[in-house]
Amino acid sequence: MQIEVFSTFPLISTADPQTLEYLLSVAIEHDYPTGRAVLMEDAWGNAVYFVVSGWVKVRRNIGEDSVAIAILGRGDFFGEMAILDESPRSTDVIALSPVKLLSISKDRFIQILFKNPHLHHKMLQLMVRRLRHINVRLQMRSSPPAVKLAHTLVNLGESYGLESSNGREIFNIAFKDLADVTEIGVEETTKIMEKLHEKGWVKIDSTNQVVHLTNFKQLLILAGKV
């Protein structure tokens, strides 16, 4: 594994070379197939995980049911809150596609945070950004389903989308998971995605398990972000 792998992660990409070398020496690589539980609820708090490639969902377990509460892709991280507050968790992380992760143990990550004020500050910035996203979702609860779904697609495209000849490309997330994170019904999600496909704003490629956001500008307008 080369040190360049850290350039993907906003949290640690600007750290000094010495810190990056240390992180590289203590990071552990993990590979998971589609559908595998990456992190079970009783394992939270042991390490911070960085998504090198692939897509995962964070799901909340309610009895025998589960609800997706977040979709994460390349360059993102999870597990940081659990190592800071050490409280019990009721969420799992599941691989939506083949996934490659790096993990850094709790003790070593906290040690780095105390030694590197810049990294500490960057982490606080990213956590505040997540809180702002949550606030926006709460404010949008009364918005029409199409607006809310467009907002979800735009966020995924902006955060993890890859540029292609057909527009920004994201993973073909199951409609149930899209519905969960958008907080609308599965039937509504299906109808809206079909409508967006008919309009040519998205192109669903089930064979390659990708969705092309072919008219990102119109999705931005629908989401109310311009």
Question: How does this structure look, described?
Answer:
This protein has 226 residues and is an alpha+beta fold. The chain has 2 domains: 3-138, Jelly Rolls (Sandwich); 142-223, Winged helix-like DNA-binding domain superfamily/Winged helix DNA-binding domain (Arc Repressor Mutant, subunit A), CATH 1.10.10.10. It contains 8 helices and 12 strands. The protein has helices spanning 17-26, 80-85, 106-115, 117-139, 145-160, 175-182, 186-199, 216-223; strands at 28-32, 37-39, 47-53, 56-62, 65-72, 77-78, 91-95, 99-105, 162-164, 167-171, 203-205, 210-213. The strands form 3 sheets. A 4-stranded antiparallel sheet has the order 1-8-3-6. A 4-stranded antiparallel sheet has the order 2-7-4-5. Helix 6 (175-182) packs across helix 7. The longest helix has 23 residues, at 117-139. The termini are far apart.
Helix/strand structural class: alpha+beta
Q: DSSP strand (E) fraction?
A: 25-35%
Residue-averaged pLDDT, rounded? 89
Give a quick account of the main beta sheet: strands, pairing sense, barrel closure.
4 strands, antiparallel
Distance between the termini: 40 Å
